[in-house]
From TrEMBL:
Coiled coil: none annotated. GO terms for biological process: regulation of DNA-templated transcription; response to amino acid. It holds the Pfam family AsnC_trans_reg. Residues 2-63 form the HTH asnC-type domain. GO terms for molecular function: sequence-specific DNA binding. InterPro entries: ArsR-like_HTH, AsnC-type_HTH_dom, Dimeric_a/b-barrel, Tscrpt_reg_AsnC-like, Tscrpt_reg_AsnC/Lrp_C, Tscrpt_reg_HTH_AsnC-type_CS, WH-like_DNA-bd_sf, WH_DNA-bd_sf. CDD domains: HTH_ARSR (cd00090). Keywords: DNA-binding, Transcription, Transcription regulation. This is Lrp/AsnC family transcriptional regulator. GO terms for cellular component: cytosol.
Amino acid sequence: MLDNFDRKILTALQTDAGRSTADIAAEVGLSQAPCWRRIQRMEQAGIIKRRVAVLDGEKVGYGTIVFAHVKLSAHGRAHLDEFAESVQRIKQVLECYCLMGDQDFFLKVAVKDIYDYEKLFFEKISQIKGVAEVKSTMALSRIKDTNILPIV
């Protein structure tokens, strides 16, 4: 589905989506119009989900990352869906994954500090219907932080 030009365009966009189409076209060896059409096609196909600015959490007041494993008291599609809908409304939850195994969900949460997480935990996360257990771990430092996929 993706040819060599598409792969090069995706790699360029992942590095800096704010660049002009002309700059990207020059880098990948296309003229501007075909490059723009390819980008539009990949956006319409959902390959490119969105173009965003990646912020430095510390500089905007969210310097602490907490990982939370959540176990529900009951299983079944309704409980999983209800939890997922509730988590969507918590802005500090950056990522949420449904898991196989001992835990049901894995959350990546951005907070100001541990006290901010404590408040979020008691006021929101632990109040979600069906939550039986939450095991939280605070990140000490970032070793790798990227959202760039290897396009091969």
